[in-house]
Amino acid sequence: MLPIGAHLDHADPVAAARELGADAVQFFLTDPQGWTDPPERPDAAAIAASGLAVFVHAPYRINIAATNNRIRIPSRKLLASHAKGAAAIGARGLIVHGGHVGAGDDAAVGFENWRKLFERAEFEVPILIENTAGGENAMARSFDRLARLWDAVGEFGAGLCLDTCHAHAAGEDLAGIVDRVTAITGRVDLVHANGSRDEFGSSRDRHANYADSLLDPELIAAAVAAAGVPAIVETPVEGHAADIAYLRERLPE
Ligand SMILES: [Zn+2]
User: Fold this and answer.
1) Cα–ligand 1 centroid distance for 190 (angstroms)
2) Residue 144: CB partners within 8 Å, gap ≥ 6?
3) Which residues contact 209 (CB under 8 A, 6 or more apart)?
4) Domain segments of the chain: what residues?
5) pLDDT digit string (tens) for 94-120?
6) For the whole prediction, is pTM greater than 0.70?
7) Ligand 1 centre and the CA of 234: distance in Å?
8) How far is the CA of 98 from the centre of ligand 1 (A)?
9) What is the whole-number distance in angstroms between the Cα of residue 163 and the centre of ligand 1?
10) CATH class of the region 4-29+44-250
11) pLDDT tens-digit series, residues 141-181
């Protein structure tokens, strides 16, 4: 069985996952809107030994592509400290958004900044770059941009976190999406199996439970099955159990 779980509170993620009956869990190590390094966790060994497929989501502020070095340099440092924190709890990967450059900037500079990240540092956990829903001049919104990003980072073993809501928002058809994206990246490491409150191509990043989703949940489940990798729902908490049950019913044993 593929590990399926949810993005949960970081206070006691193992207990939260058990309560939900999840076998995968994702959480933040710090306030996702902040710039702080993760503190040492007294439960690090317990998380690592939990048997859960553990994923850590990096803070939102990180923008590895940024042309402004007052954003880019602290972003690299913050990613490194969160990778260390993720390794300490036995995480399978650290998820970070693809980021963006300014509206007037040459996108090539952003892709080059991604390459420099991996040229200059090694990480103790896989770095899983996530496709994003919108934003001007984003690095990983459309799949043609993703192809340019992978030209820069693919050789370093960068991983992919495919978010179904973001792809739908970006105007990437969910039907057959895993084949299309794998042709670009060679891999999918994690699926963020999210429904969407908005129409196809809306550029809006509003995750929905499957019961409220304008993105057909059958396509979400099909993407998870095709990828054959763990899935995390980042949907409203009240529908976590139903969303996970929906996926499990549709995945092969
Ligand atoms: Zn996501």
Assistant:
1) 10
2) none
3) 195, 235, 236, 238, 239, 242, 243
4) 4-29+44-250
5) 999 999 999 999 999 999 999 999 999
6) yes
7) 6
8) 11
9) 5
10) alpha beta
11) 999 999 999 999 999 999 999 999 999 999 999 999 999 99
